[in-house]
Design a protein that fits this description.
With 348 residues, this protein is an alpha/beta fold. Helices cover 38% and strands 13% of the residues. A five-stranded parallel beta sheet has the order 3-2-1-4-5, with helices on one face. Strands 10-9-8-11-12 form a five-stranded parallel beta sheet. The chain has a two-stranded parallel ribbon with strand order 6-7. Helix 6 links the parallel strand 6 and strand 7. The protein is globular. The model has no long low-confidence stretch (mean pLDDT 93).
Amino acid sequence: MNKLSSTPCLIVTLCKSLNYGAYLQAFALQEILTAYGYQVSFLDVYDKENNIKRYQHLFGGIKNTPKSYIFNIRKLLAFKKYEKKLTIVSRGKSSRFKVVFIGSDEVWSVTNGSFNSAPEFFGINLPKSLKFSYAPSVRSSNVEDLNNYPKYVQGISELSMISVRDIESLEVAKKASIDKDISMVLDPTFLHDFFKNEEKYDISKPYILVYTYGFEKNIVKEVKAYARRNKLLIISAGFYHSWADKNIACNPFEFLSIVRNANSVITDTFHGSIFAIKYRKNFISYGGNKPKVKYLLESLGLEKSLVEVGYLSNDNTIETTYSNLEAILNPKINESRNYLEQCNTMIL
């Protein structure tokens, strides 16, 4: 019998975020830890203020139109249904958990306007248990930002083991925990095979998948021109863009199918890049100004996929070479799993 099979395990992350990347990283870590034998639940950190913020983030903004409003209602309903695949417990029911994993996603950001920082993201107000971080990110927050929250810094320093997913987060963790080894690990979506989780979504014509919160006008212009030249539909999943040929408010597992079947992917997001890579799609990213995206692609030897505005206007094609990826990615997957197994040894 697996010695971890009776161990209640709590994950603290953005489990109710209305975002495919946030949901799928939470689901992936759940599946990974469940395979080790843990009984996994998620902590509900969405108090009244955070619930208001996530709905404002979804429905707010001057660009909302009746069509986008209806689109976002459909997206909300899709996510509500799939929240049920996660066991979510209230703060008042967290005392029974013997181990806590904090992460992944941007839980260590104290400057992200789409949610309020929760003390539990930093190991505070949690049961007296072993507490590990797995691949948290500070996003654009820096050491100075975190220093404004000394209790959060102290919480990081008191974690049993620490891992992060990017360079900026590593710098923060080093300042908080000068006496601890800090591991660099992959986002959990890289460690889980989603094949059995995919849900079919049929799109009859060849298409480009666009995954972005929003592109500037010049990028939109060149994406549309590229699609016309190559006789491809422009499909936007998860975000409403009036310039796309079709906007799809799919559920997270339909999103995977849409990525798999795309002719190519155009994105500027972290998880948009990850899923393009997982499915070995031809892709480009306009996210070079985002440290987490830049670090991800450079660390995997895919920096040529980082492009500037005007790239598609110069008759360039979207082609990605993956010949060296396995040699780079597989050791990182092994290192990430080794970190989790080290966490396990502290419990057994």
